[in-house]
Write a structure and sequence with these properties.
Layout: E1 3-8, H1 18-37, H2 42-48, H3 52-63, H4 70-77, E2 78-82, E3 86-88, E4 93-99, E5 111-118, E6 124-135, E7 145-150, E8 159-168, E9 174-185, H5 188-200, H6 208-225, H7 237-245, H8 256-271, E10 282-289, E11 296-303, E12 313-319, H9 328-331, H10 336-344, E13 347-351, H11 366-380, E14 383-393, H12 395-406, E15 413-417, H13 425-433, E16 440-445, H14 453-465, E17 470-475, H15 483-486, H16 488-501
Parallel strand pairs: 3-9, 12-13, 12-14, 14-15, 15-16, 16-17
Antiparallel strand pairs: 1-7, 2-4, 4-7, 5-6, 5-8, 8-9, 10-11, 11-13
Helix pairs in contact: 1-3, 2-3, 3-4, 5-6, 5-8, 6-8, 10-16, 13-14
């Protein structure tokens, strides 16, 4: 196996960003509920949680029942990263241990990161020798890194792989495990080159299939050049490992092999004069060129297999939560959304929203994403414009409230899931006083540590006082994630009530 070792000091790659601190905060707040319920002393924890990334990760260590020692502090100061999400056969992947914080002064060593590739079931696939030797880390400063480069196709077949970096001390004691995933694609460069050439020669560049193929190609090219992981996978290794234990971040940003195959099929079909999306149904990958900044933006649509252009269909526009993307409502939540959309006869449109932390703001372009996708789907499919609903989870729930109220004439009802806080009550009050009587199904989890149920109850009571058509459902024992799964059948029952009764004309 061709292998190269390297050491770099002060590299910009090692810097923390806003997302690392935000998600470390979410992880710490989530852990704090169980810690408090089990009698943990919250006074020192609360102090730590106000001290930025170093304090948040310190709090996470303590709440996990691990003593705060130089060794455990080192696990939070170190990160593990790789330079690309996709590599072609015969290409090298660079793996590196990086210091995102100064190393603890009392940490001795010698330390090492052992590297191995693991299968989906956690069993070892292959070792990456000799691993990364850190030695005595005293004096190591933020930005320093040590790493190696290797050709993964020499030890693993094409497909998705996870590389595990295990930090061990001089006695071989395991201190922490960090994870990154990557994909080996056979003949990657050759296939991308052929796809680009085919797309360039198409007479019609603006068809939905051509735009989707080009957006997929661009995403794969970016993943070839960088560690393309816009959600949880792009966080520091320490925080991502914690998220991974909770089942977050296991979904890849895309199936790169399938995406390249699909884009090639689309391009070749268009070259031969056939539109592969003309009559397509089911789960559809789509993209468009944004009116906000001209970028190619992906979105997902689910069209029931019974779809007929001669009928009018209700539409649900969906906004993902922080750390998610346009695939969440189609692929996550145990597949409940497309399954029930198929059964109940709804078209779904899931929006990207300009990244995992955009908040669907006007400034980020996330707001325009929502409006653009809604209009594109209404133009392409037979949609009943009086039965367009907006829903979202967590950050998407907050976006549902804000955009639903701002563009109330466009929606027949709102479905904020784990995205309601007491601070929304004044805005709701103002809207109700204007006479806007849009139906709302407000979903909250009793055990949600991030969007606590008491805040939801405040808004529900305020709506009741105003005689607003707000249906409040609180799920016993459900937390921030599980509530988004258990509530889906009730959501479709509520949607059916709105569409069959004809209620929900928003601000028209």
């Amino acid at each position: 196996m061709l292998l190269t070792l390297f050491t770099v000091a002060g590299a910009a790659w090692a810097q923390l960003n806003q997302a690392d601190t935000v998600f470390a905060g979410l992880a710490a707040r989530t852990a704090s509920l169980a810690y408090k319920n089990h009698g943990g002393d919250m006074a020192p924890i609360n102090k730590l949680m106000s001290a930025g990334y170093p304090g948040l990760t310190h709090a996470m260590v303590v709440m996990n029942g691990i003593p705060w020692t130089p060794d455990s502090e080192l696990t939070t100061a170190l990160d593990f990263a790789i330079n690309a999400k996709v590599v072609g056969t015969g290409e090298q992947l660079r793996a590196r241990a990086m210091f995102v914080l100064d190393a603890p002064a009392a940490a001795n060593g010698p330390y090492k990161m052992t590297l191995d590739l693991i299968k989906a079931d956690g069993t070892e696939e292959a070792a990456v020798e000799p691993g990364i030797t850190l030695g005595d880390v005293r004096g190591r400063r933020t930005g320093e890194m040590i790493g190696l480069a290797f050709d993964p196709s020499k030890i693993a077949p094409p497909g998705l792989h996870t590389i595990r970096a295990t930090l061990v001390d001089g006695n071989g004691t395991r201190l922490y495990e960090y994870y990154r995933s990557f994909v080996v694609v056979k003949d990657l460069g050759k296939r991308l080159g052929a796809l680009d050439k085919t797309l360039e020669l198409l007479p019609e560049q603006k068809s939905p299939a051509a735009i989707e193929a080009r957006q997929a190609m661009q995403a794969i090219e970016e993943a070839h050049e960088t560690y393309y992981a816009p959600g949880f996978q792009g966080l520091t290794g320490f925080v991502f490992t914690d998220m991974r234990k909770a089942g977050l971040g296991l979904k890849e940003p895309m199936d790169f092999e399938a995406g390249l195959t699909r884009a090639t099929l689309f391009a070749n079909s268009l070259k031969e004069g056939t539109d592969p999306l003309a009559t397509a149904k089911g789960d559809l990958y789509m993209a468009y060129r944004s009116s906000f900044d001209g970028k190619l933006v992906p979105y997902r649509v689910y069209v029931p297999t019974s779809y007929s252009p001669s009928k009018k269909y209700p539409l649900v526009v969906l906004l993902h939560g922080a750390g998610g993307d346009e695939s969440d409502f189609i692929e996550a939540y145990k597949g409940e959304w497309p399954k029930l959309a198929e059964q109940h006869g709804y078209i779904l449109a899931s929006v990207t929203g300009r990244g995992p932390l955009s908040g669907y703001s006007k400034e980020s372009g996330g707001e325009q994403d929502v409006l653009d996708v809604m209009e594109l789907v209404k133009q392409r499919y037979s949609i009943d414009s009086s039965k367009v609903f907006l829903g979202g989870h967590s950050m998407g729930g907050g976006g549902t409230w804000r955009l639903g109220m701002a563009y109330s004439a466009d929606f027949a009802g709102l479905i904020p899931i784990a995205g309601t806080s007491a601070q929304l009550a004044p805005g709701l009050d103002a809207q109700m006083k204007k006479g806007i009587r849009m139906p709302v199904l407000m979903i909250c989890g009793e055990s949600d540590a991030l969007v606590p149920a008491p805040g939801c109850r405040v808004v529900a009571e305020k709506a009741k006082e105003l005689k607003a058509p707000v249906t409040y459902k609180e799920y016993p024992g459900a937390d921030h994630l599980s509530v988004a799964v258990v509530s889906v059948p009730d959501i479709f029952t509520w949607l059916d009530e709105q569409t069959k009764s004809g209620a929900g004309s928003g601000g028209r």
